[in-house]
User: Which sequence fits this backbone?
């Protein structure tokens, strides 16, 4: 029974560390984690455990370890001599935590590494332009593609950019996209041949 409680407390600690470090939850503090999860530990012992788990989680997250890498890493940590190693229960809790949170932590790290806003969405439609009524010399000019790009960072409101493209511009954009795809395909082929 004590092992189950210890595992739950350790899992709670890992979740708390992730909430603070990767999900920007400022309500989670080291003091809160100690009082709620490890009330019987001395502040020094809890501080050491907290720093150890925080460091291990950071190493795992930065390397974006897959299952095999994680198991090798945790095995090496369990074999460490002295007080710096992991117990089997701690390794098991870390493994379960990482399996459930890997994608979310990775997405958080990727979002933080972007300097510029990203494309959140794209909507488009084709309209037929009609005469503006300014004079008899203006005739309808044909179809127009209207593109609306939604740009933004994860923690900010979106900004919208609207573009109007005629048939020639759309053809040029499609040609450029095809050129980019051919370049990517050539790079992929070369890397697969090496």
Assistant:
């Amino acid at each position: 029974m004590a092992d189950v409680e210890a595992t739950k407390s350790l899992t709670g600690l890992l979740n708390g560390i992730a909430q603070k470090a990767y999900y920007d939850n400022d309500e989670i503090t080291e003091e809160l984690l100690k009082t709620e999860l490890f009330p019987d530990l001395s502040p020094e012992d809890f501080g050491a455990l907290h720093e150890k788990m925080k460091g291990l989680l950071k190493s795992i997250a930065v390397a974006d370890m897959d299952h095999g890498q994680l198991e090798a890493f945790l095995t090496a940590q369990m074999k460490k001599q002295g007080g710096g190693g992991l117990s089997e229960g701690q390794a098991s809790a870390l493994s379960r935590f990482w399996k459930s949170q890997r994608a979310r932590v990775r997405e958080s790290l990727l979002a933080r590494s972007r300097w510029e806003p990203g494309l959140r969405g794209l909507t488009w439609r084709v309209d037929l332009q009609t005469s503006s009524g300014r004079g008899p010399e203006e005739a309808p000019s044909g179809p127009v593609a209207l593109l609306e790009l939604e740009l933004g960072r994860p923690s900010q409101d979106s900004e919208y950019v609207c573009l109007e493209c005629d048939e020639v511009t759309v053809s040029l954009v499609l040609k450029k996209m095809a050129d980019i795809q051919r370049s990517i395909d050539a790079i992929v082929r070369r890397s697969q041949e090496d």
User: Anything to note?
Assistant: The first helix runs from residue 2 to 21. Residues 2-113 form one domain.
